Amino acid sequence: MLKFALKNMAIKKVQVILIIISIVLSAGVGVLAFNVSEQVSEGLTNNAGYYSAIIGPSGSATQLAMNTMYFTDEPVGTIPYSLVSELSQDSRVKEVIPFAMADNYNGFSVVGTTPAFLSAKTLAKGRMFTEGEAFEAVVGSTVAELNKLEIGDELYTSHSVGGDKHAHPLKVVGILEESHSGFDKVVFTQIKTIWQAHDHSGEHDEANIGVDLLSAGHTTEEATEQATEDGHGHVTEDGGHGDEEHEDGEHSHTSNTVCAILVKTLNPTYAMSIVNEYNGKVYMHGEDSYSLQAIEPMDTMRGVLEETDNTKYIVFVLCAIILIMNIIIISIITLLNMYHSAKEISLMRLIGISMKKINMLYLIQNSLIGLVSTALAFGISRACLVLMSDYVESMGAVLNLSKVYPLEWVILFAVFLISVIPTVICTVSMSKKDGINN
Amino acid sequence: MIEIKNLSKKFQNERAINYKDMRFEDGKSYMLLGASGCGKSTLLNMIAGILSADSGEILIDGVDMLKKTQKEKDKFRIEKIGYIFQDFKLITEMTVMDNINILRLEGVNTSAADDILRRLEMYEKKNKKIKHLSGGERQRVAIARAIVKMPDIILADEPTGNLNFEIGEAVIRQLIEISKGKTLIAVTHDDRLGKYFDCTIDMNSMIGGGENA
Question: pTM (2 decimals)?
């Protein structure tokens, strides 16, 4: 039966290929759209859940979350480092990690932080930078690969791509294992490296306008605007240096700034109370005042995703339309196929083949078509996931190619049924007629 | 033995055919001769269980075909009857062997196919597609398919209808040769082929009552 079904399919290869293409397109698009939207949502939300709270300068909560967790977008501004010390003393807090994004290395962002920020990451080579030292760097796998960096190499950062490089190089002490995330494309160093780099660079004055604005709790955009008006080409988030409180190029931590502070609390209730306490607070540091915002990153990311739900909804509606169109197309092709098969069915009936066997034959044929098509659709959707993974990674989520959601099986099964049901309808209808009249 | 008793068939245009009683002995070959539309093919189709009758009996070894359900008729046709059609009823995109092996769907043993194709001088072309064969070759494939299951009864509806006389005559000779020992009923309008059959029945005279034997 199977052999004959295969031979019969080979005869009608054009129709079979048309049906397969039609099914593959509908099922593939449906499954891919669903998988990607789910993985991106999950990935972004899960990443966000790693920290209980993020404290930064007032401004866009989304920008603060995206910048600190996915290294996208510009920092919102700066806040004094002294806040890190204050939070470290807080009994509700388990861990505090400072975060400063400044400068770049050949277009890759340079982030100043503590080794704790990379505690969940694995090193492929070398060691973690030492907290008390400066000018050591751990580089992401992409940064190392594209710049052919090895342990012991030195790299020079600059304020802007192609701009003047800082005088003091960073020594590569570690290379992160590839994680298919934003971490692959970042240079990590001690927070003090960021502060000291500017002291040694001789670009102090050049950066002052932006620095002053940021020091006063202004946002990057405002600083940039001001810098541009005054003919200065770049802005740094390091608001503390170049001012009155450093001696011989060495900063005291009380005068330095960071772009954000990542906080892990002892329990979720504490996270909520910290957010309530710091959000909207005006923090005084010396004579300067800083307007703060505090966010629960998971809530912020959920909010972002809810805002993008319309896009998700549109994708689902499009998929539904494609599926409906394909139900119609598959049904028409199958019905035409069965119409052309009527002569063949009549022939088989005349020589004595029972309608039961004929039904079985066509059911096997269309089930094979359905199975091959849905398997291909699944394979193609995974191939598309591979192609899309880089783009999705740039959004801060990692696509797991082996991840299959139950609804994907439901979509594939529905498409399989769509490919079989018209055949069943046709053959049942033909069964009701006498063989010679078909 | 096949017996036809008081058989009548009414068509949609209200035209009715009433057959005289007929009897076909086991192992003999019969040629049904008659004008177009006299009911020759209809009779074959009713014997094969493809068409139903309005009244009368078709007794095959004493069992009335007309009282069987369609499922029983199908089973009888696949097991006991080899049917050869004027238009061959072959799947043109498939090979000779595929067209014979299609019977395997109903569990028919087709192991005799090679031998039968040799006897019909078609063995060399067994893997050729039907669409690449001539009319005579196609008819021989149709005969092979009808014979391969070793049926007790062979029904041939105008087996030479689409062939010229020379080819048709050769096909009939092969059909008679290969059907020896079986009951063969062949419908044709060409009385020149009558000499090959044990018995010729003029169907024009079999409509309206009477008995052939």
Answer: 0.60
The CATH number of whichever domain residue B48 belongs to comes to: 3.40.50.300
- Of B77, B90, B94, nearest to A352 by CB-CB distance is B77
Domain hosting B187: range is: 2-205
Interface probe for B, chosen from A351, A355, A361 (most Cβ of B below 10 Å), is: A351
Q: Does A347 touch chain B (CB under 8 A)?
A: yes
Rounded distance between C-alpha atoms, residue B95 and residue B144, angstroms: 13
Measured CA to CA, the distance from residue B105 to residue B195 in angstroms comes to 37
Measured CA to CA, the distance from residue A207 to residue A166 in angstroms comes to 13
Closest Cα in chain A to B51: A436
* Chain B 15-34, residues with CB within 8 Å of chain A CB atoms: none
A202 Cβ contact partners less than 8 Å away, ≥ 6 residues apart: A167
DSSP state of A178: P
- How many CB atoms lie under 10 A from the CB of residue B123? 15
Predicted ipTM of the assembly: 0.80
The tens place of each residue's pLDDT in chain A, 438 residues long, gives 788 888 888 887 888 888 888 888 878 888 888 888 777 777 666 666 678 899 999 999 988 988 888 888 788 899 999 999 899 999 999 999 999 988 889 889 999 999 999 988 889 999 999 887 788 999 999 999 999 999 999 998 887 666 677 778 899 999 999 877 788 899 999 988 888 876 654 444 333 323 333 433 444 444 444 433 333 333 333 333 333 333 333 444 445 889 999 999 988 888 899 999 999 999 888 888 899 999 998 888 777 777 655 666 776 777 777 778 777 877 777 777 777 777 788 888 888 888 888 888 888 888 888 899 889 999 998 898 888 877 776 665 667 777 888 888 888 888 788 778 877 777 777 766 644 443
Domain-embedded: residue B212:
no
3-class secondary structure, A218:
coil
- CB distance B50–A436 less than 8 Å? yes
The alpha-carbon gap from A424 to the nearest alpha carbon of chain B, in Å, equals 19
Integer Cα distance of B37 and A278 in angstroms = 101
Report the residue from A353, A357, A436 with minimal CB separation from B51.
A436
For residue A347, what is the nearest residue in chain B, using CA coordinates?
Answer: B89
Read off the tokens for B149. Answer: 């299951």
CB contact under 8 A, A352 and B81: yes
Place of tokens 């992160």: A176
Collect all residues of chain B within an 8 Å Cβ-Cβ radius of residue A343.
Answer: none
Residue A262 and residue A96 in contact, taking contact as beta carbons nearer than 8 Å: yes
Q: Would you call B92 an interface residue with chain A, using a CB distance cutoff of 8 Å?
A: no
C-alpha distances (whole Å) from A46 to each of A116, A296, A299, A316 are 18, 12, 11, 23
Chain B touched by A7 (CB under 8 Å)? yes
* A347 interaction partners in chain B (CB closer than 8 Å): 89-91
Tell me if A4 and B104 make a contact (CB, 8 A cut-off). yes
B45 contacts on A by Cβ (under 8 Å):
436
Report the domain count for chain B.
Answer: 1
Give the gap in angstroms from C-alpha A364 to the nearest C-alpha of chain B.
13
DSSP for A226-250, please give it.
HHHHTT-----S--STTSTT-BTTB
Cβ B98–A7 below 8 Å, yes or no?
yes
